[in-house]
Amino acid sequence: MCTTAMLTSIFTDKFSDDNHPQDPSQAGEPPPPPQPTVPKKRGQPLKKALSTGKEDWSTALEPQEPPKPTSIMYYLAIFSEAEMKKAVKQQKASNTFLQLKPDFKWDTVKAQFLMKIMQTLQPKHIDFSNYDFTWNIPCQQSSQMQLQMDDDYKFLIAHALKMKEPTANVKIEARVAKKGKKNDSGTEHNVSDNSSNSDSDTSRDVKHVKKKSKKKSKDSKKSKETMLNKDIKEKIKLLCNH
Questions:
Q1: What pLDDT band is residue 69 in, cutting at 50, 70 and 90?
Q2: Which residues touch 20 (CB under 8 Å, ≥6 apart)?
Q3: What span, in angstroms and rounded, lies between the C-alpha atoms of 195 and 181?
């Protein structure tokens, strides 16, 4: 009987309600906050994953520069000498394009323009001074600007690079050669030579007229002198007779 009583007392003491731990929610205490769970990457520790996440976040906030354009598109409108002789409304251009890097030098760009002129117009002789080059950029530089020197080219590049897709319109006009007038024989003379010849002819004519006027005045004087001499001689004869 003593052993059974001891067993029951031990059993009741071990599993009694007084010795059992109470639920914190029933006791009135707030539950502890849940710990944040960070997904682990395979093959990398937790600390390394957290550090890489912070770096990605910082780099995403930093402003990134847009990539610089690698080339400029030139749209060429080439007018031949025959077209330049027509009225402005009747002129038609030969259109083509050219794509060049913005760091090219002006001499290289000039050579590329002349190559396009050779391919389009096929002239017998070509020289950069025989053409007028002008350019404009829509929404940047609407008025026509000259393109003859290195400074003009740098000004074009500065405006073209402001655009996301750099473009420029280039107008190339052939200079019309001035021809002289033809004589009756069919030979041509320059206008300047004709003007000088005409000036010399007029000066000669003026001198010839002056000489004629002087001769006439001398002849008139001589005629007057002869008439007076005749009158005087006749009067002397009459006096002698009396």
A1: confident
A2: none
A3: 11
